Amino acid sequence: MKPPMVSENPKARYGSHGPEEAASAAEKSQPRFEHAGFLSISVPAIQRPEDGHSLGNVIRHFRKQLGLSQQELAGKAGVDRTTIARLECGIMKTISMDKLEGIAAALGMDIKTLLIKAESMGESLSCRSDTTRVEFSLDFPGEGFRIVSHIPKRRDFFFGKIEIEAHKAVATERLPHPEQIYLHALDGKILLNREGKEFLLKAGDCFAFSGRASYELYNPDLMKGCSALFITYPSFLPV
Description:
Elements: H1 10-14, H2 19-29, E1 40-41, E2 45-47, H3 55-65, H4 70-77, H5 81-88, E3 94-96, H6 97-106, H7 111-119, H8 126-129, E4 136-140, E5 145-149, E6 158-164, E7 169-171, E8 180-187, E9 189-194, E10 197-202, E11 205-210, E12 215-218, E13 226-233
Parallel strand pairs: 1-11
Antiparallel strand pairs: 2-3, 4-5, 5-6, 6-13, 7-12, 8-11, 8-13, 9-10, 9-12
Helix pairs in contact: 3-5, 3-7, 4-5, 4-6
């Protein structure tokens, strides 16, 4: 596999601007949805997983558990009843993140919880949300990043943290993944370069995207490292 793409000269990377100026410009231009009490989502749409634990199955399960009809859930979520129906039967393949957040809120949870439940119904979420727990780690000292797993290795998803040293980058070749990737910035800033577009994630921001397209995670800070929750569906690790 190729090493991550890292430019030693920030001016060469961003033309006449340094990394902080370029990051600031990217931040101003990116689409954002501000969500009270949760996270800032910077992604227009997310694909539904194509397996038995579909997002639609989970929505139907928790809707019925709450005793809601499709019409009642749609009213609480601020979407059309046909949206709920198409999701539950698997016809709808994509849904915007703001609509998905409305559905999650109507079910009494946030997006992260809903997506995790979509991959693993019936298991306790507490162990997966404990970011102090370390099951194992993958260290790449020569390449400037480290990945920590908060759960035992499994096939259906990965839940952990990625730590990137100052002025280092991680490219697609080092973390190949064909499906969904979810980032939630914890410390510092992460500049996500995806298909020629840049998105700056600050602490508290999150971004969900498909790993099918090439991407790069870059730490624009010249002095300190950054970190983010790193979740993939399914796991990017061989089991």
